[in-house]
Amino acid sequence: MSILKVKNLSKTYEQFKALDNLNFEVKQGQIYGLLGPNGAGKSTTMRCLLTLIKPDSGDIHFFDKNLNHNRKEILNRVGYLIEKPDFYTYLSAYNNLKLLSKYSLNKIEDKTIRNLIEKVGLKGRENDAVKKYSHGMKQRLGLAQVLLNNPDLIILDEPNTGLDPQGIVELRDFIFELKNEGKTVILSSHILHEIEQLADSMIIINKGKSVIQGSKEELLGENNLHVKIEIESTNDIENALNDTQWKNKYNGTTNNMMSFDIQKDEIAHLVSFLSDKKIAILSVSYRKKLEELYMSLTQNTNA
Amino acid sequence: MLKLIGVELYKIYTKPRSYLGLLAITIIVFLIHIAMYSGGQEYLDFIFSTFKDSFDVSGKILTGNLIAFIILQMLVVQMPLLVAFVTGDIISGEASGGTLRILAGKPYSRSHIFFSKFIACAIYTFVLVVWLGILAVALGHLLFGSGDMMVLKTEGLVVLRDGDILWRYGYAFIIAFFSLLLIASLAFCISSFAENSITPIVITMGLIIISTVIGTLEVPLFEYVKPILFTTHMIIWRNMFDKPVPWNEILVSMSIVLSYTCLFTGIAWFHFTRKDILT
Questions:
Q1: Predicted confidence (pLDDT) at residue A293 exceeds the cutoff of 80
Q2: DSSP state of A59
Q3: pLDDT digits (tens, 9 = 90+) for B218-267
Q4: How many Å lie between the alpha carbon of B272 and the closest alpha carbon of chain A?
């Protein structure tokens, strides 16, 4: 079941097109990764989802309901942390949560707040003013705030920014825990390794457009690998490939590096074919890491 | 809505800067009381010396009623500053602090958030006025006692009997509240556009000073502008101490004050409910 559908979302700031007909869909129970370079439109997308920014055009449906017409009901089921965790610094963590709980349509018991404080590891410091908190502690408080109304969908924008390695591991466990509780999480991060470990599906956006999207299996699985073969000489390469099955899978050659989009089990056949054609192969590599996919796609669209 | 107003009031009254207004009023009023207690008679003798040839003044001039009147002059500059100090920060402070984006994504509409903030500002302004009233009138009476009141106005000298004064103060403070609500709405309006706390306070005070200066200067060109300046009508509370009270004039001024309040609030609402929250 789809929990979020974004259709043709566009937003322009003066001359700058922040979102350009963006489409994506998030299924229930997924951890969905939102990736892209700085200024790609990730935060704008997330802000549109939360009605912080009004898109110029496009539709957003949560839980099969239009956001514009069912804002109140929808946002009561969404928890979010956008950019850095900001709070009323003159108030304690407990009082911040108590205050923010009033913005929910549900009645949030004091016990719930206490439990959340314990869950995020702030027990014992809940009465300290937030201005005395470190960034990591504020981030924990931010996560407690996200869960205040027991949301079905959680939106986290760069949640691991500024966290130490231990904090990143704890955050990862926390997000997995949310998934195990049946919640859907939309997550943007610059730490590709984190997204790779966490996300079930993802979208890479650049210049406000979807560059690629799909499940992790589809994007990083062993099908449709991006294979690079380094050769000694590029003479007659094109001729060698003509009228073969490889012609349509061939992306070109740059700096003695041939590029193909093929399946993993085809690699051996391709190498064998090239050897038969007396093409000296120096190395064979194929992309598997998200980082490589990300870099190639965002660099291509930046070019 | 009531829940949100409660939240906004909680924010105001847990914020240290909110107490600066109350503290400043307390200090200023106490200073005026002390100054008048120690050297007030000489001061008044000097003021009324010009009338000595025309009037035979006997009895006590320095009364709690007169002290309250002197203190009410604070409404022109000091009180607007204290009001703007809190109301100018109420939206922009949240924008710069990043908490606005937390609130704006909550199920309550922006209009709910906006009006809960505005009503909380109005309540805060009311508290400031009540506190000023208590200190000015009650403390004045306690220190200087009651008595007839002589008010020196541009048109001449007005003498009010002791029993004819307190109700005038009641109305004067109501008018003062609406005048300061205008300032609150102006600061609130600028606050909805700004993304830092200082700008709305500075702009509000700048506008008050400019408007006051234009209203004070006796230049023919400015005579056309004066009737539409909000500061012209903010001091209409003084007319409550005229004999007879010019009710029509007061009602016209109050209508203009309320119109300005609605205008500033309307502009702020229009902008706040439509703006992109990027902070």
A1: no
A2: E
A3: 888 788 888 888 888 888 888 888 888 889 999 999 999 999 999 999 99
A4: 11
pTM of the model: 0.81
Domain positions in chain B are: 2-40+57-272
- In angstroms, the separation between the Cα of residue B121 and the nearest Cα of chain A is 18
CA distance B170 to A221: 78
Which residues on chain A are in Cβ contact (under 8 Å) with B95?
A: none
Enumerate the residues of chain A whose CB falls inside 8 A of the CB of residue B109. Answer: 71-72
Other Cβ atoms less than 10 A from the Cβ of B107: the count is 18
Closest-CA residue of B relative to A105 is B107
Query: Dihedral, CA atoms, B258, B263, B267, B269, nearest 10 degrees?
Result: 40
Interface of B with A (CB under 8 A): 3-4, 6-7, 10-11, 14-16, 97-99, 101-109, 274, 276-278
Instruction: Look up the ipTM and state it.
Output: 0.78
Tell how strand A78-81 and strand A153-157 pair up.
parallel
- Asked if the Cβ–Cβ distance from A86 to B99 is below 8 Å, we say yes
Residue B212 token pair: 């006051």
Residues of chain B contacting A103 with CB distance shorter than 8 Å: 4, 7, 103, 106-108
- A51/B10 CB distance under 8 A: no
Q: For residues B263 and A152, give the distance between their C-alpha atoms in angstroms, rounded to a whole number.
A: 41
| Residue B89: predicted pLDDT | 86
pLDDT digits (tens, 9 = 90+) for B77-113: 678 888 888 888 888 888 888 899 989 989 999 999 9
The 10s digit of each residue's pLDDT in B176-224 is 899 999 999 999 999 999 888 888 888 988 988 888 888 888 888 788 8
Chain B residues with CB-CB distance to A83 below 8 A? 98, 101
Q: With CB atoms and an 8 Å threshold, state whether B276 touches A47.
A: yes
Mean pLDDT of chain A: 85
Test B277 with A84 for CB contact under 8 angstroms.
no
Look at residue A288 and tell me whether its pLDDT is greater than 70: no
